[in-house]
Design a protein that fits this description.
The protein has about 160 residues and is α/β, with parallel strands linked by helices. It is built from 3 helices and 7 strands.
Amino acid sequence: MEEKKNILTYEGLKKYEDELHELKVVKRKEVAQKIKEAREQGDLSENAEYDAAKDEQRDIETRIEELEKILKNVEVVAEEDVTSDRINIGCTVRIKDLEEGDIEEYSIVGSTEANSLEGKISNESPVGKSLIGASVGDTVSVITPAGEFKYEVLEIRKTNQG
């Protein structure tokens, strides 16, 4: 079975590459220094600093592995493929909940980048999946475990244009 591609916007790719660089270049050295200093204190069996530094080292190596796995199988959404005619990954949309009247704004991203607290929803989520391909003025139905919701698409713009 082929591994699923990690679809990222250019902004998401840059964020992950920067984090990986920081972990490999800065954090690894910091932790190695902490371990060295803790070792110099003698008895490691009761050395809390040593244990904490080893835990931190393990966490850093785990995150580096995760990031390398994401970046190894990445597909970046090409800037020229993002338009404001139809909703796709890399777009920010304003939609109106037709029942409640609330206006919401979301950036559509690949599942790897999704973060609902930052208003970034996955193209694979119920709302994201329903919005893909819609145009301004379209009414979109979204089936969720909580029921059916209807949204009107008010605006579509490229995410990186703010």
